Each structure stands twice: as structure tokens, then as C-alpha cells.
């Protein structure tokens, strides 16, 4: 999307639309990929998904960053 915006004069309307849509699809795929990939192995608790699903849109990131241990099983947040 940034590339499309920076080079807007060199693209046709169709190319610009395709690049912008590709950026949106990549962003959504990244969000959903992270939602299901970031998890505690032992219990399968998905931290990012839990934050996005259960917290208000204005506070999910703050809540997520405040967690020092898994909110489901209490496992420490440090990587092993
Ligand atoms: Zn856990």
C-alpha cells in the first residue's frame, strides 16, 4: 500500500487498486496468522487472539503488553 501511494502516478487505476487490495489482504493474513501462531505451547492459549476477541478495541493492546505471564495457565512470558 505504501509503495502504491508513493508511486501513484506510475500506476493505472487498475494496478493501483490491485496493489492496495494486495496490501489489505497481506495485512489481514498477517493479523490472523499472528492471532493463531502466538500461543503457549503447553496449553495452546492464543494470547493475541484472546486479547483481540475479549478486550475492547481501545484497550486490547495495552492489556496484551501488560501481561507478564500467560493469563490462562500462568506460564512465564519469557521465550525458552
Ligand atoms: Zn498458558
User: What overall geometry do the principal axes of the alpha carbons give?
Assistant: elongated
Termini separation: 36 Å
Radius of gyration: 18 Å
| Main sheet properties | none
Mean of the pLDDT scores? Answer: 88
Q: What portion of residues belong to β-strands?
A: under 5%
The helix-and-strand class reads mainly alpha
User: In DSSP terms, counting alpha (H) and pi (I) runs of 4 or more, how many helices?
Assistant: 4
Specify the oligomeric state. single chain
The molecules bound to the chains, other than polymers, are: zinc ion
**Helicity level:** 55-70%
Query: Which series of helices and strands comes N to C?
Result: HHHH
Low-confidence stretches: none
- The strand count comes to 0
Task: Provide structural commentary.
By secondary structure, this protein is mostly helical. It has 4 helices and no strands. The chain has helices at 2-6, 13-37, 47-54, 60-66. Helix 2 (13-37) packs across helix 3 (47-54) and helix 3 packs antiparallel against helix 4 (60-66). It is elongated and about 55 Å long. The model has no long low-confidence stretch (mean pLDDT 88). The protein binds zinc ion. Zinc ion is lined by residues 40, 43, 45, 70, 72-73, 75.
Amino acid at each position: 500500500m505504501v509503495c502504491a501511494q508513493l508511486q501513484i502516478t506510475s500506476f493505472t487505476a487498475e494496478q493501483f487498486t490491485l496493489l492496495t487490495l494486495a496490501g489489505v489482504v497481506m495485512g489481514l493474513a498477517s493479523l490472523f496468522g499472528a492471532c493463531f501462531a502466538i500461543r503457549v505451547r503447553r496449553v495452546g492459549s492464543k494470547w493475541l487472539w484472546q486479547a483481540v476477541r475479549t478486550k475492547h478495541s481501545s484497550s486490547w493492546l495495552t492489556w496484551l503488553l501488560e501481561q507478564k505471564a500467560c493469563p490462562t495457565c500462568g506460564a512465564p512470558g519469557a521465550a525458552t
